Amino acid sequence: MGKIALVIGHNPRGKGAYSPYLKLSEYEYWENVCDEVKKMEESIDIYSRKPEQNYIQEMKPIVTEINKHNYNFILELHFNAGSLQAKGCECLIYFKNKESKKLAESFMEKLKNKYGSNIRKEWNKVKEIKINKDGKEEIIEKVIETKGLIFITDSKMRGGYGICNTNCTYVLVEPFFGSNEEADKFKNIKEMAKFIVDFIKSYEN
Question: What global pTM score does this model have?
Answer without folding.
Answer: 0.91
